[in-house]
Design a protein that fits this description.
The complex is a heterotrimer of chains A (639), B (314) and C (437). Chain A is built from 18 helices and 29 strands. With 639 residues, chain A is of the alpha/beta class. Chain A folds into five domains: 100 residues, Beta-grasp domain (Ubiquitin-like (UB roll), Roll), CATH 3.10.20.30; 79 residues, Ubiquitin-like (UB roll) (Roll), CATH 3.10.20; 138 residues, Domain of unknown function (DUF4445) (Nucleotidyltransferase, domain 5), CATH 3.30.420; 166 residues, 2-Layer Sandwich (Nucleotidyltransferase, domain 5); 106 residues, no CATH class. In chain A, the strands form seven sheets. In chain A, strands 13-12-11-14-16-15 form a six-stranded mixed β-sheet, with helices on both faces. Chain A has a six-stranded mixed β-sheet with strand order 28-26-17-18-19-29, with helices on both faces. Chain B has 314 residues and is α/β, with parallel strands linked by helices. Chain B has a single domain, classed as Dihydropteroate synthase-like (TIM Barrel, Alpha-Beta Barrel). Chain B has an eight-stranded parallel β-sheet with strand order 8-7-6-5-4-3-10-9. A two-stranded antiparallel sheet of chain B has the order 1-2. In chain C, helix 10 packs parallel to helix 11. The longest helix of chain C is centred in the middle third of the chain and has 16 residues. The model of chain C has no long low-confidence stretch (mean pLDDT 91). The chains are: A alpha/beta (639), B alpha/beta (314), C alpha/beta (437).
Chain lengths: 639, 314, 437
């Protein structure tokens, strides 16, 4: 029996006649329409979704479609057959891409609900009108300022630095006794004096930005958020690889390097350079000057904080792994070497132990895990794969060295999730031809973390690599070849790439990715095991890390990075460390909460016995040596 | 006071693997040997019957080894120069299976000739090991495999780096493979998965978890075997394979077995100690779940056989 | 049953007061679960919790200590398989002697003096079992002149036992053995002399009845003789008793087991099984170093803590018959690291010397990170194992992961050429072929 199919594409209807049981994708081809099928028509990718506007098709698989999608008439062209006359709307490709039920959008940054300036903020801007001096009132400038502070801002005790004191007389007079003071209120003890950070002539607009910055110093990536403390809004987000990376990819190498003569000083300078350049870029973006930034809150792992402050970190590495300081006191930017206002406070958030630093306490704060009723698992997919498990009653944490692969470092064609990074890959299971999406849409420069996850998963599902990660050179495709480090797969030919060089996934990359994912998986399984909590009882898995805008949960499960749980249970939070620093920068209550979190967390040393090693080698396989832990992947492989 | 005996009822059991084919089965062996089939931890007959008892293989070399202990040379004598004679004597010494270990000096023709001569000298099933180098193994084992099509020989030793060629030729010629991994439960499972992903039926894989000799890491092999067996009984299909281990090879390289002079007095009589070393290593492995133990000294063969008899007698 | 950390945590005050010496109550709970700390370290735990925790912590198999000049312990075991945690109290090895033996003193002296070294540890026998085929009291006297090791007295004659035990004041001997017919007088003696008592029956029912009756007479320290006509039967019984004790918490059989391989068809084989399969005490027929040594090593191996990283013996290993020109490769003593290096090189057919350094069982990167694999340690290994005497070409290949050490190592070993090898063992054969020629 013949049926009439009317496709609408680009507002133009095209009609073809096909017999019963014709695949929609074949009918579309007959109509001259090129519906993308990156996975090779296997119903894996969901890219060929079309909308049935009239009539009906039989859907063999709706794997990529939510029930809501199906309700709206969506069907996969490669998985649906014609059974009668039907009208089909073919949506533009880019709209389809995000129709993947497995995708999770990385949480956006919004000002925390209820943020109130100035009451929540420790740094405040105050306008003062001073009575000009006269022959009758010969009070000195400083006392005059103090009097104004007492009478107009109810501040009885105030501290000032010598540098600032040297400029007071001039500022008061230039402003004709109208000045704007930026003050910092004590964080913990209200009896402590208030500190005068800056004094500017004249009154500035009450609603003009008061700049602060939240900084996350990662082993691989440094992120800076520039924040208007008045509105609470993040006005610029910038990130770059940590300049220390040339001296070693992991914290241990850095500690070793710091031990060498002059090494510590060099590493300190390198990270300061990175931070200062990022601050400059961020400030430029909002047309501010770095000196306008009056507060900095810093999160980072313990080693990074030690190196930033020039504190010897060698004992972090040596048993029994003791830091010099878990919670550094408030310091001045000028002393630390961060090029913002020299009197700005630098607040390094408190950590827990050598391998669980402020990046994690900040991450816990931003994830809300410490106030949750149900048990939540929080994973930081970074160079040090930290894991926190718990709820409002208890918190346990561990760290494992995952390497920088998921941050795009230590991978031949890896890069950060910025413009030019391949962030998603689909591979046709018959031809091994890939389809990829590039951040910003231009020519690819490399592959970022989410792209690597997606690529590794596709390579595995399509048989390009076996479960142990060996590239299968027996498959015939010019994209599979013997490279410098054994078998490799060409994702983008030089003709397509920005550099003109082939972009490849090599055996070494696969090994690095396998180790990274195995370390993270092993970390949280051993942690859960140690406290006696079955993974099934975890209500939510929150994931932090420097990924792009989207993460495909299914792919992360397929490679065995994440546990095989319903997709709804995962949430991607992006960089949780800088986010936590941002919350702490804004609100002193949140800042207190981090201190509380650090006190409550119990650190579990994974190297105490063989269980981590066991779990690690078990996870060093795709998706895992124990397939029964990954039923969804087993059924995907059967298909 | 009546005690109720606690019995584990396991969901899984070990696959039965049959080595060697009789003429009725397309080969020339006088009998085939089956191992596996257990549904309980070793010798707990009150939980589940044991359909096949562990067996003993004797290792012979394709040419007379110059580095074997004088005690072994004394035991096997002149036969060591001629694999067929050696195999015959091993058969008489009580072997259930003969292991023919090829050497680097063998050419493919030598290898085929030696294996064929052993096949005609004895009716026992065979295991053939390559010399242990990827390229050489492939060079020797492929022609041996082809020349013995249908004999259901066990080809070894497959490791994660060289499994593809050996598995492919074993599949093509109706043979079995010995899959070895270095004393790690996960690595064992992974290699079994990789091999069965190639299409090799699990009934044709023997897993070799590797062991150390007594005093040289036996405890790791021992626990890995117990864990593999427990995993298999708990239902993990990728560990439900019979286990082969090589205590003979491991013990006869230790100085406790190999050397008679210049050793501490506390070690006692050389020959008795050397045989104790091999026998006790083998017994510990038999207790932890070995299905095939590959031995070298006829006296150890006798003692281990005796122990197995006691263990399987209900 | 043992409680998991989180269950114990729920019984603690949850105040994170730190007075126990741990940063949080949960950290303390996990230490409790791992039995690495005593509950008494917590000043605020409630009585109810204390009771509950004590019950869960009680050992399912009673600890029996035999004591004289030295002591030997059995029991307190908590698992069926060593990988589940560890086996703790090593099987006590006893040599059987006969009271009638005219050479008794001589034989005991020889066995008592026996000492053998295994990887730096000295092993010896644990005691003597005296068969009362002659004058037991006299034999005890004789033995005590030449040995201070614990004794097992093998007689059912309570008068004889009484006089013998009276010679052993301050000791804890083991009486062999009580059965249904004689347990009452023997239990009285065990109580009087604080001796432990073997109970013997050919059925588990019988053993349980005996231990209950004897316990009712005030004796707690007992040891089980399981009987059994062959290795298979003994293994079944030993497994059943262990499982009943630790899985079913059956107190009546929660005692260590004694085995008599001396009566078996093949003593060595039966003794090996007894050591592997749960015997607390093993009695051997005579003092034979050629059997004793392998048994002592087996016992050490089986009772090694499996939670410790898997290590190989540090030293210099020969691969593919190296000659003085062959390269010297360096790695750590983590077994998997050693295996992957050794296997790659072995598989390549290229000769090499492999120096395994003592890195406390850590892999190259971990050891380096923890400061256990540095230039100083490598140099020390090269010197200790006298590598220089084996090679004419003084060339060391470092793992690529620790390339940073090459400078320091050159300083430590000035007359050696230091080469940086590949990071991964897989690449070693290619490196050895290309870079080392």
């Amino acid at each position: 029996m013949q049926h009439t199919i009317t496709f609408t594409f680009d507002d133009k209807p095209i009609t073809v006649t096909v017999p019963t049981n014709t695949m929609l994708s074949d009918a579309a081809q007959l109509a001259g329409l090129d519906i993308g099928q990156p996975c090779g028509g296997q119903g894996r990718c969901g890219r060929c979704a079309v909308q049935v506007t009239d009539g009906n098709v039989r859907r063999r698989s709706t794997l990529r479609l939510s029930p809501g999608d199906v309700g709206q008439g969506f069907a996969l062209a490669c998985q649906s057959v014609v059974e009668g006359d039907v009208s089909i709307y073919v949506p533009p490709q880019e709209k389809i891409e995000r129709r993947l039920t497995t995708d999770r959008v990385v949480a956006e940054v919004t000002v925390p609900e209820g943020y109130e300036y100035p009451s929540d903020q420790t740094v405040r801007r105050i306008h003062l009108e001073l009575t000009p001096p006269s022959m009758d009132d010969q009070t000195d400038d400083w006392s005059r300022l103090q009097t104004a502070l007492r009478l107009q801002a109810n501040i009885n005790k105030v501290n000032v630095s010598l540098g600032l004191l040297q400029t007071i007389g001039n500022v008061l007079r230039v402003g004709e006794w109208n000045v704007t003071a930026v003050l910092e209120y004590p964080l913990e003890d209200l009896e402590q004096p208030v500190r005068l950070i800056s004094l500017q002539p004249h009154h500035v607009d009450e609603y003009s930005p008061l700049w602060g910055c939240a900084i996350d110093i990662g082993t691989t990536t440094v992120s800076v958020w520039l924040v208007d403390l008045v509105s609470g809004q993040v006005r610029a987000q910038v990130a770059e690889y940590n300049g220390q990376i040339v001296r070693g990819e992991d914290v241990i190498s850095r500690i070793m390097y710091a031990n060498k003569s002059g090494g510590g000083q060099e590493l300190r300078q390198r990270v300061l350079d990175t931070i200062n350049e990022l601050l400059e870029t961020a400030c430029k973006r909002v047309k501010a000057k770095p000196e306008d930034v009056v507060k900095a809150t810093i999160a980072g792992n313990s080693t990074m904080i030690h190196l930033l402050l020039g504190i010897p970190a060698s004992n972090i590495r040596l048993s029994p792994f003791i830091t010099a300081v878990n919670h550094p006191p408030l310091m001045r930017a000028g002393d630390v070497g961060i090029n913002i206002h020299s009197q700005a406070s630098v607040d390094c958030l408190p950590g827990v132990a050598s391998y669980v630093g402020a990046d994690i306490t900040a991450g816990v704060l931003s994830s809300g895990l410490d106030v949750a009723e149900d048990v939540i698992l929080f994973l930081d997919v970074g160079t040090n794969g930290e894991t926190v498990l718990g709820n409002r009653d208890w918190l346990v944490t561990c760290a494992c060295s995952a390497g920088p692969a998921f941050e795009g470092a230590g991978v031949v064609n890896g890069m950060r999730a910025t413009t030019g990074a391949i962030e998603e890959v689909w591979v046709n299971s018959d031809t091994f031809e890939p389809t990829y999406r590039v951040i910003g849409g231009g020519k690819p420069k490399g592959i970022c973390g989410s792209g690597l996850i997606s690529l590794l998963s596709e390579a595995f599902i399509t048989g390009i690599i076996d479960k142990a990660g060996n590239v299968n050179l027996m498959k015939s495709s010019s994209r599979l070849r013997d490279g410098a480090h054994g078998g490799e797969y060409v994702v983008a030919w030089g003709t397509e790439s920005e550099s003109g060089e082939d972009i490849v996934l090599s055996r070494v990359d696969v090994d690095n990715l396998l180790r990274a994912k195995a370390a993270i998986y092993a970390g949280f399984t051993v942690l859960a095991d140690t406290v006696g909590i079955p993974l099934e009882s975890v209500s939510k898995v929150l994931i932090g890390g420097s990924f792009g805008k989207y993460i495909n949960v299914e792919k992360a499960v397929q490679i065995g990075l994440l546990p095989d749980m319903p997709w709804e249970q995962f949430d991607f939070l992006g960089n949780t460390s800088v986010r936590g620093a941002y919350y702490a920068l804004l609100d002193w209550r949140k800042r207190d909460q981090i201190t509380e979190i650090a006190k409550r967390m119990t650190y579990i040393e994974l190297s105490a016995d063989n269980s981590f090693y066991e779990a690690f080698t078990s996870a060093l396989f795709l998706p895992h040596t124990d397939m029964s832990k990954f039923p969804s992947v087993a059924s995907a492989l059967e298909r | 006071m009546p005690i109720e005996i606690p019995k584990d009822k396991w969901p899984g059991s070990i696959k039965i693997v049959t080595i060697g084919a009789t003429s009725a089965e397309g080969g020339t062996r006088t009998k085939s040997i089956s191992v596996g089939g257990q549904a309980s931890m070793p010798y707990l007959h009150y939980e589940a019957p044991m359909p096949n008892k562990p067996v003993i293989a004797i290792e012979i070399k394709s040419r007379k080894p110059d580095d074997w202990s004088p005690l072994l040379v004394e035991a096997w004598g002149e036969t060591m120069a001629e694999p067929a004679q050696w195999a015959k004597k091993a058969d008489e010494a009580g072997a259930d299976i003969i292991v023919v270990a090829l050497t680097l000096a063998d050419s493919p023709e030598d290898a085929v000739r030696v294996v064929k001569s052993v096949l005609s000298a004895t009716g026992l099933p065979l295991i053939v090991w390559g010399p242990g180098q990827v390229e050489k193994d492939n060079e020797l084992l492929v022609p041996v495999s082809e020349a013995t099509n249908g004999e259901k020989i066990v080809l070894g030793i497959c490791e994660d780096k060289n499994y593809r060629t050996i598995v492919a030729t074993a599949m093509a010629n109706g043979h079995l493979v010995q899959a070895r991994t270095p004393m790690d439960v996960n690595l064992s499972k992974q290699l079994n998965i990789l091999i069965s992903d190639m299409g090799m039926p699990k009934e044709r894989i023997l897993m070799d978890p590797t062991t150390g000799a007594l005093g040289y890491g036996i405890e790791y092999g021992y626990s890995v075997m117990e864990r593999l067996r427990l995993a298999a009984l708990q239902g993990d299909a990728m560990t439900q394979l019979p286990m082969i281990v090589t205590p003979g090879y491991e013990t006869w390289k230790t100085k406790e077995s190999k050397i008679g002079e210049g050793v501490p007095e506390g070690w006692g009589d050389w020959k008795a100690r050397a045989i104790n070393w091999e026998t006790l290593t083998a017994i510990a492995l038999v207790e932890s779940g070995a299905d095939i133990v590959v031995l070298r000294h006829p006296e150890s063969v006798k003692r281990v056989k005796g122990a197995i008899e006691e263990l399987v007698t209900v | 049953m043992a409680l998991a950390g989180i269950q114990i945590y729920k019984l603690l005050p949850q105040t994170n007061c730190k007075e126990c010496g741990f940063p949080t109550c949960l950290a303390f709970a996990m230490k409790l679960a791992a039995k690495q700390v005593e509950l008494s370290a917590c000043p605020y735990v409630s009585d109810a919790s204390k009771k509950q925790l004590a019950e869960s912590a009680a050992p399912p198999i009673r600890l029996i200590t035999l004591k004289a000049g030295s002591e030997v312990k059995a029991g307190n075991e908590v698992v069926m398989f060593r990988h589940e945690k560890s086996f703790y109290n090593k099987t006590g090895l006893f040599i059987r002697v006969k009271a009638s033996d005219p050479d008794l003193a001589k034989k005991v002296t020889a066995a008592d003096a026996y000492k053998v070294n295994y990887v730096g540890m000295d092993f010896s026998i644990d005691g003597f079992a005296i068969e009362a085929d002659g004058d037991l009291t006299a034999a005890v006297k004789t033995i005590r002149t030449v040995s201070k090791r614990p004794l097992i007295l093998m007689t059912k004659d309570s008068a004889l036992l009484d006089s013998s035990l009276s010679l052993l004041a301050g000791e804890s001997a083991l009486i062999y053995a009580a059965d249904a017919s004689n347990y009452e007088p023997l239990a009285d003696l065990a109580k009087k002399y604080k001796a432990a008592l073997v109970v013997k029956s050919d059925s588990l029912d019988g053993l349980a009845d005996l231990t209950k009756n004897i316990q009712a007479k005030g004796v707690e320290d007992m040891v089980l003789d399981l009987g059994g006509r062959n290795m298979g039967e003994w293994l079944a019984r030993s497994t059943q008793v262990r499982k009943l004790a630790i899985k079913s918490n059956l107190r009546a059989l929660g005692y260590p087991v004694i085995a008599f391989p001396c009566d078996a068809k093949d003593e060595g084989v039966a003794a090996a099984q007894a050591i592997a399969k749960y015997a607390g005490f093993v009695v051997l027929s005579e003092f034979k170093p050629e059997l004793l040594y392998p048994l002592l090593v087996l016992r050490e191996n089986i009772y090694t803590d499996p939670q410790k990283p898997i290590q190989v013996q540090p030293g210099i290993y020969e691969i593919n018959s190296p000659n003085p020109e062959s390269p010297v490769l360096v790695t750590t003593n983590f077994s998997i690291t050693y295996f992957s290096v050794a296997n790659e090189v072995e598989g390549s057919g290229l000769p090499a010397w492999l120096v395994v350094t003592d890195a406390e069982g850590m892999s190259v990167l971990t050891a380096w990170a923890a400061g256990k694999f540095d230039a100083e340690r490598i140099a020390k290994a090269i010197k200790t194992f006298d590598v220089a005497s084996k090679v004419s070409k003084k060339r060391i290949v470092l793992p690529g992961h620790v390339a940073v050490l090459s400078g320091e190592l050159e300083e430590e070993l000035p007359d050696w050429e230091i080469r940086v090898g590949p990071r991964e063992a897989v690449d070693l054969p290619a490196f050895m072929k290309q870079a080392l020629n």
